[in-house]
Design goal:
The chain has 284 residues and is mostly beta strands. It is 6% helix and 44% strand.
């Protein structure tokens, strides 16, 4: 890390290091080095777009509830690793920072090699400006053998009232409903309605999503675009699971919807030296 980058780092909640991005047009973002975790994004002339739980845990080894956790190299419990892998629980290196962007890196350590025996490099670029937030995750196989992984940018979008919020852009897309299982990703049915509503828990993986997805509440629309990631997850835990979460308020589920770019149905396979890039863009 360069001296100039070190000078940009501040102490955040729980004394975890973080940085702020602020552009000339007034767009702002907050990124913790812990997990390369975006905890805040305010577009130019706008208000907070991301949800962060008031009970979020900020400490080494724990994941932060809200914002944009990075899921790598395993989505959910679909493998032998801890749920959602380890990238969100590790400290990343800040390698470049400017008013409108930051680049962070993560490489394997002996601890990760003991549970996932593959050498890798992750590069995460966060870019803001105007009404857009762009996140780009680059994965490089630095090992001598191939490996496979699944990944996601697990984005918590703040809503004013869940019951007056809908998600569009998924009609006709094949999906798997995971409300009763954490491992089954078989294509079960297609999305019948033009607009997805939230009468209770929603946990669905949509496969091979091509078009942008929209979160609509009152007069505001947030568009989620992606590339590299083939799938999309839409998630809200509902009351029962929210009440059981130690890092959520009992009614916290009313304040967010997760829409996340995911590569899960078909794991990404990288040969030695190969690179994959997945991008997600939010537009308000």
């Amino acid at each position: 890390m360069s001296t100039s980058n070190k000078s940009l780092i501040q102490n955040g909640t729980g004394d975890l290091p973080k940085i702020h991005l602020t552009t000339t047009d007034g767009a702002r973002a907050e990124i913790y080095l812990h997990g390369a975790h975006i905890t805040s994004w305010i577009p130019a002339g706008g208000s907070e777009v991301l949800f962060l739980s008031p009970k979020a845990i900020f400490r080494p080894g724990a994941s932060i509830r809200g914002g944009v956790p990075i899921i790598f190299p395993q989505f959910g419990g679909m493998g032998q690793l801890p749920a959602h892998g380890f990238a969100r629980n590790l400290t990343w290196d800040l390698t470049e920072s400017a008013p409108d962007h930051a680049i962070l890196h993560l490489r394997e350590s002996e601890s990760e090699l003991s549970i996932w025996p593959h050498k890798f490099e992750l590069e995460y670029t966060v870019r803001i400006g105007g009404n857009q937030l762009e996140m780009s995750l680059k994965v490089t196989n630095t090992d001598s053998t191939p490996f496979e992984f699944t990944a996601a940018l697990h984005t918590y979008l703040r809503v004013r009232d869940l019951h007056h919020t809908t998600v569009g852009g998924l009609k006709g897309v094949w999906l798997a409903d995971r409300t009763n299982t954490s491992t089954d990703i078989k294509r079960e049915t297609t999305q019948k309605d033009e607009w997805l509503k939230f009468p209770g828990e929603v946990d669905s993986i949509y496969f091979d999503v091509v078009d942008p997805v929209q979160l609509v509440q009152d007069e505001q629309k947030t568009t989620v675009e992606k590339s590299g990631f083939s799938d999309v997850v839409v998630w809200n835990p509902g009351r029962e699971k929210c009440e059981a979460s130690k890092d959520m308020l009992p009614d916290g589920y009313l304040e967010f919807v997760c829409i996340e770019a995911v590569a899960v149905e078909k794991p990404i396979k990288l040969e030695p030296g190969e690179t994959w890039v997945g991008m997600q863009r939010l537009i308000v």
